[in-house]
Amino acid sequence: MKYIDEFNDPELAKRLLDDIHATVTRPWAIMEVCGGQTHSIIRHGIDQLIPELVEMIHGPGCPVCVTPLELIDKALAIAARPEVIFCSFGDMLRVPGSHQDLFRIKSEGGDVRVVYSPLDALRVARDNPDRQVVFFGIGFETTAPPNAMTVYQAAQLNIPNFSMLVSHVRVPPAIEAIMSSPTCRVQAFLAAGHVCSVMGTSEYPGLVEKFSVPIVVTGFEPLDILEGIRRTVHQLEAGTAELDNAYLRAAPAAGNPAARRLLDDVFEITDRGWRGIGVIPGSGWRLSPKYRAFDAEYRFQVSDIDTEESTLCRSGEVLQGFIKPHQCAAFGTTCTPRNPLGATMVSNEGACAAYYLYRRLESTPRPDGRREVASIG
Amino acid sequence: MKYIDEFNDPELAKRLLDDIHATVTRPWAIMEVCGGQTHSIIRHGIDQLIPELVEMIHGPGCPVCVTPLELIDKALAIAARPEVIFCSFGDMLRVPGSHQDLFRIKSEGGDVRVVYSPLDALRVARDNPDRQVVFFGIGFETTAPPNAMTVYQAAQLNIPNFSMLVSHVRVPPAIEAIMSSPTCRVQAFLAAGHVCSVMGTSEYPGLVEKFSVPIVVTGFEPLDILEGIRRTVHQLEAGTAELDNAYLRAAPAAGNPAARRLLDDVFEITDRGWRGIGVIPGSGWRLSPKYRAFDAEYRFQVSDIDTEESTLCRSGEVLQGFIKPHQCAAFGTTCTPRNPLGATMVSNEGACAAYYLYRRLESTPRPDGRREVASIG
Amino acid sequence: MAESTPVLDFDGWSCPVPLRDSPTIVMGHGGGGQLSAELVQHLFVPAFGSQGDAGTADSAVFELGGARLAFSTDTFVVRPLFFPGGSIGDLAVNGTANDIAMSGAMPSHLSCGFILEEGTELSVLGRIAEDMGAAARRAGVAIVTGDTKVVDAGHGDQVYVNTAGVGLIPDGVDIRPQRAAVGDVIIVSGAIGVHGIAIMSVREGLEFGTEIRTDTACLYPLVAAMLAVTADIHVLRDPTRGGVATSLNEIASAARVGVRLTEKALPVPPEVRNACALLGLDPLYVANEGKLLAFVPREQAEAVLAAMRAHPLGEQATVIGECVDEHRAMVVATTTFGGTRVVDVPIGEQLPRIC
Amino acid sequence: MAESTPVLDFDGWSCPVPLRDSPTIVMGHGGGGQLSAELVQHLFVPAFGSQGDAGTADSAVFELGGARLAFSTDTFVVRPLFFPGGSIGDLAVNGTANDIAMSGAMPSHLSCGFILEEGTELSVLGRIAEDMGAAARRAGVAIVTGDTKVVDAGHGDQVYVNTAGVGLIPDGVDIRPQRAAVGDVIIVSGAIGVHGIAIMSVREGLEFGTEIRTDTACLYPLVAAMLAVTADIHVLRDPTRGGVATSLNEIASAARVGVRLTEKALPVPPEVRNACALLGLDPLYVANEGKLLAFVPREQAEAVLAAMRAHPLGEQATVIGECVDEHRAMVVATTTFGGTRVVDVPIGEQLPRIC
Amino acid sequence: MCLAVPGKVLEIWDKDGTRMAFVDFGGVVKEVCLQFVPNIEVDDYAVVHVGFALQQLDEHSALETLALFQRMGEIEMEFGDPWARAAKDSGQEVRP
Amino acid sequence: MCLAVPGKVLEIWDKDGTRMAFVDFGGVVKEVCLQFVPNIEVDDYAVVHVGFALQQLDEHSALETLALFQRMGEIEMEFGDPWARAAKDSGQEVRP
Ligand code: SF4
Ligand code: SF4
Ligand SMILES: [Mg+2]
Ligand SMILES: [Mg+2]
Ligand SMILES: [Mg+2]
Ligand SMILES: [Mg+2]
Ligand SMILES: [Mg+2]
Ligand SMILES: [Mg+2]
Ligand SMILES: [Mg+2]
Ligand SMILES: [Mg+2]
Ligand SMILES: [Mg+2]
Ligand SMILES: [Mg+2]
């Protein structure tokens, strides 16, 4: 695919790696905020290729992982209702609520459908005027405009049986929260390129300044990630803290003004709980009063939610970069992708799942008790 | 089964047959009104055992057969509605409406269920409060009390999602209509024992007198039928015309007063169309105004019914005994139980189906054109 | 595939076969009666290019690597899954084993394919698998290969099971419907209608109390005992769906002989007779899962019958009719009263009659 | 049956196997991944009393009447029924034929069992049967026995097809997963991920335009060409559900060897790669229906590869990895950039990712 | 529409104010509504149609009818072989 | 949540007042909503996420970035074998 393949060129990757290796002299801890970047790093083994001195910390960048347990429990309760067709991105289906997940709800007769786009859910609503169609609107700033547009269209086209269960989160308040933590180890950020495609970069200079932390906007292909790391370590080694944009081709400084206008119309900023972390002020979006009629939380007054998080799970610490997944005692034993205790073990972008999937070799005890470590890398 | 097996004793049958053979001297045409009796006669080959001089004419005694086409079309339209669970005795499922049957409606997604008792339909209604449950209430006087009781209970228990599509027919007005036909060949009647179990015999003396026709109330087991025939031919040969009851064990003269009281409450007499025959005044029951709320015809104002009877079918003449089924040109060729043109080919009690099923040997051209007649009997 | 020249044109279908009556599948297409037979004859046989016999035998017979094999499959969709005396698991093993045995082969290896509806309790599947294992051990067959698929809720009904199986046919044995011949004596191995009534007694909305339990069993040991008397058994058949009436009709048609039944010889247990009376059914059309029909040359009939009666699976074996040179391809019963009636193939499944 | 002593107690089940995670069947139990494998290992094998190998091979191998046979079954529930380049009918024939061929046997006889939902158009069934007949003729197999059941509307989904089949294994051939050995070269017969992407391109709600058509084909002719080079092929496998990743994991587990893949050697067509990028899928987990994986001793690899490339079904055959003495029972890929990653068994079916 | 069979009342109880019973039809037991036969008791026989008892079976009358059939045979015996006569009368061969 | 890929706009049309397009992702064509990129034209590249174009891809910038990578390699070449150094730095054996 054009503009993908070029950024997957192993020859060019070598050159970037060379530069990184040539640059790094001290240990650095860099957080990639976005789960898509975590996926790419581990999928391609990038963390094995960069200098050992550079530690990549996987941030809270998977909206599936950070969706608050209470909201998942609400989603499950709504999806179980016989009149509801519950539409969701595929990622959410295996995320455990307190007692079940959407797969289980589906297996028990709930009409749960995977959609590729929120517009598909709107189409389902038009095709099933007798049913209530609810879309689980999760995501960062990247997914917010599509979801906003879908609510906007539902209002324009007057589709009364459509609603959205909104759990949008915003990246900059999360960065602020992480940096404000007294135990924070993060020294620089790779910012998610597609978040910036929408929002632009105007929210970052303040953070750079406040915390003296370099922030480099990067894309998702291996060369993008490497270039992001390269620019970051250059700053770190030079002792500067600036906002840099390594993803200019898709993330202009102004972002997408049309999308941002719609976001301002459809959503309003709210405090939002992040699973495993807690409430971060101003870190979420909910539907603005104008669109409340399409808010599934209002339409379905679900009560009786008995939310119960695992006591073993340390995903909050994982998400904030305080520990690596395999430092959690449950990792790979009582907690596996098959039977996840925390959301970070569920989504492929979840830090724990990514570790389990691609790093099991090094860090997971074998089921038969043997610990095989191959001489790889 | 006690009181069944005894009335199936071949030894005793011989004695009754002997008496019949000893009695008959001239040709007689006797109509058994009830489809159950038709079934029994042909199932056991009784018509082959009685004297050839005695011709059994199969009357309009199968309520499945005589249910008016328009009502079947209504039933199909109601059963096709998504909110409806349509409950019916099994016999009705294959009865062709103008364009479809209940099997086809079911195969196209209609929720059609076979029940053993109308009370089962009421239970379905209680179990599915969100659905409309409609029972197809067909039948003679035998089935009327169970159906009446079901409507009565629906009212008592206040089950608003239950209704009944009523197509009840009454035997005496049919006998009157048959006898009043100028071409009538029937010289005596076997009256249906179970109709009399409910209604008693008080409606028959008037008919006996008006048409000077012997009427003998009989049961359904082979000995019952034979005894009915025996008593009938005795009267015919003697030139008498009386009401006789050969089924006293289950059909007392007064019938069942409790059942008749309920019938008076729940139903009212109405003119009713008989499929293939036409409207017979006062020959039907419909729900009385008091129970109109449970009348499916009122609840579902089905319009757009485009009723279209086969032009080939002579089932009316068959039902009235004017012709035998195999005298219809369509019999066994374009009209088979598999693809019935008329209702008399559908139900096992239908005269055409009974002929096809048990007499095919003698009267049906073989599919390969050969006509095999076995020397049986 | 789109490229291949179609043998039949299904879209502009105008062939005058009865199939065109119904443009869609109705329940009767699976009832084992006329509609089922027509589907095989007019749709599958032309499409698959099989020989004319396809669909008339319980199993296919062919040679492979010098061995003469019987090969058969059945899919089991019985509801409820568990019923007096057995379960879908027992049927799935015995049913295919029996179809193989009806060629005179010893069933030895089975496959099984599950279609599971999501939401089905694992314990239900576990009980079924247990029953299959136990039935296989009793039958002396091994379940050696399998497959499991899961379908969305509302696109299945808990558990459907397909089994297929193979067995080796002894030398000199040639059992198939076409071999029915005028003069053959027709034996049934025991009481009829038992399985179907056992199932109906627990079917939703029809429930009735009865002591009747399914007769499901693997019939191969009985077949072996019969073959020990003579290899010259003409036809064997397990009268499952559609009952004795349907099986006899199929054989009468395949061999173009007349079948004459003696109604009073039919071994119908009183409870089966009574349940049928109550429901308006005919025991001849009710399913069996542990009985066989045998067409035996008259000279061998007595010895075969004796061998059957000496075996636990055939204790109540009895002669119920014969093949005649009349009404070929038809089954005719002499009634208890001396009349006759044609015993026809049902159209689809029997429906409880109320009138 | 109720009488038999249960081997497992499913009601008070407390065995610590992963199965107890879910008390009900979920879609993943049919996905060909971990859940499927566990169902076989922890439920079917104990219930059926099969050997430990059950479920790891594509087909069962046994001797009957002196002939060495391969026997296999698969059920096909693919939606939609018709898709670019083929239909459920093609898959039903080729899928089982291939499972048989993966034992080195020549598939010769198939059974088929249909579960039809009432209301299905006969023309749909007709087209499927046509496709089955045409595929059988191409594959040189005969569909010799069958069964049809009809289920109530809402308890099926138009047409499900089961096929089972047998084939004769030539002397000297012993192909099974357990024979994978350190040093074996791993060959794939052509482009991967093609079938799965073709299906997804027409799946409701996911539709996308692409030239990709299913690769469904009977692989036996290719297998015959390979066996003509050497009878000593260790393992063959058609990487269907769960894709190459799942098949390699199963083999690595069965033989307890390490599998090392070279990612850049994987023949992933650009459209497959791009569709995967769009949907967030990994081509290694996408289904194939006309490709095979072969584990060949290093000494024979070159000759076998040459024979494969000389055959139309293997023109693009290529070496994708090897068996190593490290990370036994695991599959590890060397990424394009020189890193490594574990290629694990999926839990259930792959879900399109959006993040 | 008249498929009704006689069964023996095994047990009577009340359900939602309705008199119900288990009725035995020769080893086949079904639940039956007794509302139309208020006086029927356990061990009586009921004629049952679509789950409802329509009448109490008059056992005395049943036995009388059967006795009549028996007697008739005995009377007939005096007049020679009835089957031969039947065949003659009907013009067809009737086999017993 | 950021799986977005660049594709080439093939065809643009209007659906219920919404600007839609077929976008080609290297042989894979999907319908995409263009409401957020009002100025995009046929042959332009769009960055697409869950069926929506979120940005027009700046092709000039993309090529510049790639050119930078190329140049950087050339500069690096002057400083000897980078892989050897990488291995040294990281303390692990890195195979190309
Ligand atoms: S390994 Fe599991 S339990 Fe531990 S932090 Fe990760 S998700 Fe939570
Ligand atoms: S044979 Fe068919 S067409 Fe003729 S009268 Fe009977 S039902 Fe009508
Ligand atoms: Mg079979
Ligand atoms: Mg069978
Ligand atoms: Mg399989
Ligand atoms: Mg279901
Ligand atoms: Mg059979
Ligand atoms: Mg396989
Ligand atoms: Mg298989
Ligand atoms: Mg397979
Ligand atoms: Mg079968
Ligand atoms: Mg369906």
TrEMBL record, chains A, B:
InterPro entries: Hyd_form_HypD, HypD_1, HypD_2_sf
Domain of life of the source: Bacteria
Alphabetical list of Gene3D superfamilies matching this protein: 6.10.20.100, HypD, alpha/beta domain 2 (3.40.50.11740)
Coiled coil (residue ranges): none
Keyword Metal-binding found: yes
This protein's UniProt keywords: Iron, Metal-binding
Entries under Pfam families matching the protein: HypD (PF01924)
Tagged with keyword Cell division: no
PANTHER family: HYDROGENASE MATURATION FACTOR HYPD, HYDROGENASE PROTEIN ASSEMBLY PROTEIN HYPD
Family: Belongs to the HypD family.
NCBIfam families: hypD
Protein name in UniProt: Hydrogenase formation protein HypD
Organism: Jatrophihabitans telluris
Automatic annotation (TrEMBL), chains C, D:
InterPro entries tied to this protein: HypE, PurM-like_C_dom, PurM-like_C_sf, PurM-like_N, PurM-like_N_sf
Domain PurM-like N-terminal: 58-169
Pfam family, one: AIRS_C
UniProt cross-references to Gene3D superfamilies, sorted A to Z: PurM-like C-terminal domain, PurM-like, N-terminal domain
Domain of life the protein comes from: Bacteria
SUPFAM superfamilies: PurM C-terminal domain-like, PurM N-terminal domain-like
Every PurM-like C-terminal domain range: 182-329
NCBIfam families: hypE (TIGR02124)
PANTHER family: CARBAMOYL DEHYDRATASE HYPE (PTHR30303:SF0), HYDROGENASE ISOENZYMES FORMATION PROTEIN HYPE (PTHR30303)
Family: Belongs to the HypE family.
Listed name of the protein: Hydrogenase expression/formation protein HypE
Gene it is expressed from: hypE
Automatic annotation (TrEMBL), chains E, F:
Alphabetical list of Gene3D superfamilies matching this protein: 2.30.30.140
A Pfam family per the record: HupF_HypC
SUPFAM superfamilies: HupF/HypC-like (SSF159127)
Homology family: Belongs to the HupF/HypC family.
Name by which UniProt lists this protein: HypC/HybG/HupF family hydrogenase formation chaperone
Protein source organism: Jatrophihabitans telluris
Species classification: Bacteria, Bacillati, Actinomycetota, Actinomycetes, Jatrophihabitantales
